[in-house]
Amino acid sequence: MLTILGQRQPAFCDRLSRRCFLRVGSLGVGGLSLPSLLRAESDAGRSASDSSIIMIYLPGGPPQHETFDPKPDAPVEIRGAFGPIATSLPGVQFCELMPKLSQMADRFSIVRTLTGMENRHESFQCYSGRKGGRVGDSEPSGGWPTLGSVVSQKLGPGRDGMLPYVDVGPKMGYGPYNNTGLHDNAPGISWPGITGPQHVPFALEGEGRADLILNGIDMDRLGDRRTLLESIRQSQQQVDLGGLDGYQQQAFGILTSNRMAEAMDVEREDAKTRAWYGESQETDRGFGGAPQSPQHLLLARRLIEAGVRCVTVAFGAWNWHGQRGGTLEHLSKKFIPVLDHALSVLLTDLEQRGLLERTSVVVWGEFGRTPRINAKGGRDHWPATQSVLLTGGGMRGGIVLGETDRHGGSPISRPIHVQEVFATLYRNLGLDANATTVTDFQGRPRYLVDNGHQPIAELI
Predict the structure, then answer these.
(1) Is 2 domain-assigned?
(2) Does some domain include residue 239?
(3) 233 CB neighbour count, 10 Å cutoff
(4) Lower CB count within 10 Å: N or C terminus of the chain?
(5) Rounded to whole angstroms, how far apart are CA atoms 446 and 193?
(6) DSSP class of 357
(7) For the range 83-91, what are the long-range contacts, defined as Cβ-Cβ under 8 Å and sequence gap of 24 or more?
């Protein structure tokens, strides 16, 4: 890994540095990811698709009842403390805590009947669409790749050579929530995946054992390419990097270009836009999740605008059993309106900038929550169904897919498997999930989805 850090980095209240730092994945002995991608693109002579994706992961699993699938006619121990609110779609209601998204419901779609998730607190399900880490998961050696890794391998660098796959963090206390292939209560690690180490995400936050910190280089000096490369050369003996070839120098040119540096520097955004997104709200450290940081969503938009293909970001901490942080009612009042505001701003911003049509957005957690509120005033894990927001990338808006039973616990119409969502996202990016394969470490082709799952017909 390579981290370019400055010594003058006062932090935002949400811990996103004012001069956001730069990390290059897989710089060590295993190879430099971006130069490898540049070589591959040069050898293949392929042209780049302009489609992109933002995947917003909600660590811990948000409740469907208090968001997109209220059950106002159910008993109070099922429906909870909040009532429904009308949306811009006739006959469709969301929870009253989501007034902003309710008013723009015709501009995105909701799946209320997602299936195929396991009772596992891990981001891997959302980022890969697969099970992993346990005997019986039928995972290939090296692990299933995340969607972003597949995009990196199959489509290569983004527009004008921009990085294909970026994870904007923030780093979380519970390891399996991070986008690093760790699993919940399982020894296996699905990392780097069968696409190989050159296709793991470029991480803007976090730590790595093989980090190379270039002391004295900060964002104000990234324009000086010669100084940067000389600093790297002077550090070679310490980290045993070897020589920099032409593709490596080209990679550093991209990573340290004004466009990349400016995309990562949220302070360059208009002050009114930053204020529009809003300030961060901390979450209880006991959840091990992320803060609710709208500025990280703004950063995701800036990276997409700069040409990155796939951006992943975690938002909040949603494991609301009631034993920490307060009751479901208290936590819902505190955190769901922030999600409502931040998502509505992001979607509006993407639309106003002409980015939404080519940028798919998916918002989900690893599972839903129990229909019945427990004795502690919370909801427990519930993989039987959950709600998912999908929009952009050419998908139709204003559709609510599937219906759950009167308690919101099981699909009674149109269950949608998680790999149908992945087939849809791959389609939006120009990849046929039923024809495209990734070769595993034993040389066997692996399809992007299992069992012939198809894109969601109603959305295309």
Answers:
(1) no
(2) no
(3) 12
(4) C
(5) 12
(6) G
(7) 88/398, 89/398, 89/400
**Assigned domain for 266 exists:** no
- The structure tokens 């309106």 sit at 337
For residue 335, give every residue at least 6 positions away whose Cβ sits within 8 Å of its Cβ, in sequence order, or none.
281, 283, 292, 316, 318
- Domain interval for residue 321: 53-203+282-459
What is the torsion angle, in degrees rounded to the nearest 10, for the CA atoms of residue 371, residue 376, residue 377 and residue 378? Answer: -50
Q: What six digits make up the tokens of 405?
A: 């039973």
Q: Give me the numbers of helices (H) and strands (E) for the chain, helices first please.
A: 13, 20
Q: Is residue 336 part of a domain?
A: yes
> How far is residue 287's CA from residue 63's CA, in Å, rounded to a whole number?
15
Which DSSP state fits 11? B
Domain harbouring 142, CATH code: 3.40.720
Stretch (H or E) spanning 328 = helix 328-352
Q: What is the pLDDT along the chain (460 residues), one digit of tens a residue?
A: 344 443 334 444 444 443 444 444 333 323 344 555 555 555 544 444 789 999 999 999 999 999 999 999 999 999 999 999 999 999 999 999 999 999 999 999 999 999 999 999 999 999 999 999 999 999 999 999 999 999 999 999 898 888 899 999 888 999 999 999 999 999 999 999 999 998 999 888 754 323 333 333 344 444 444 454 455 455 444 444 344 455 555 555 555 556 767 788 899 999 999 999 999 999 999 999 999 999 999 999 999 999 999 999 999 999 999 999 999 999 999 999 999 999 999 999 999 999 999 999 999 999 999 999 999 999 999 999 999 999 999 999 999 999 999 999 999 999 999 999 999 999 999 999 999 999 999 999 999 999 899 999 999 9
Give which of 23, 34, 52, 33 is closest to 305, Cα–Cα.
Answer: 52
8 A C-beta contact, residue 320 and residue 60: yes
Amino acid identity, residue 403? Answer: E
Q: How far is 348 from 355, CA to CA, in rounded Å?
A: 10
CA 41 vs CA 200, 249, 301, 326: distances in Å: 17, 16, 25, 51
